[in-house]
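Section 5.1 Outputs to date
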Amino acid sequence: MNKPYIKIKRIMDIILSFFLIITLSPLIFIISIAIKMDSPGPVLFKQKRTGLNGEEFMLLKFRSMVADNDVFNFNKGDKITRVGKFLRSTSLDEIPQFINILKGDMSFIGPRPWLCEYYKYFTPHQQVRNLVRPGITGLAQVSGRKDLNILERIEYDIDYVNNVSLINDIKLFFKTIYVIFKKDNNTYESYTIEDEYMDLKRNYNEYLK
């Protein structure tokens, strides 16, 4: 892992996240009003996720679901609001994570921060993905995210950690822009949280044998 670049990357994250929060403040205000008008509930969605070295932090997003949505109710799909559908399709729901980046919870580029329940089923090999700060976008997200199962995405994440560099981050940035704006962009993964959780658990049990 490129430790000197990791330090430089943190400085870049601070500068860029601060700049974007200030610059996008009018858009943030408009989105906040739209969410409140569309459905009752808070503007922000907050959820504990696993970050650098397995430490937990509170992930921030614009709320795209109804306030009583339960991601662990495997018998129901996500109850996405009208505004939420637009925010997800444009990735605008991720804007509050600039605050996470400024605080040091996240980076712009890196493995996605996953639910804390996932981490306890990571093998030592898979825990490598948590040796860097999680990101808003990463290698797995531009490599067919919606068609990859969780074990495949972890391997992409590990590959990113082992080859982290400024050049690779720049490439991932432009690939992310392409994925967001291409016509067949689909923000909904083929695998549910239940699928991911059970795959991790099954793989971990195989590791213990």
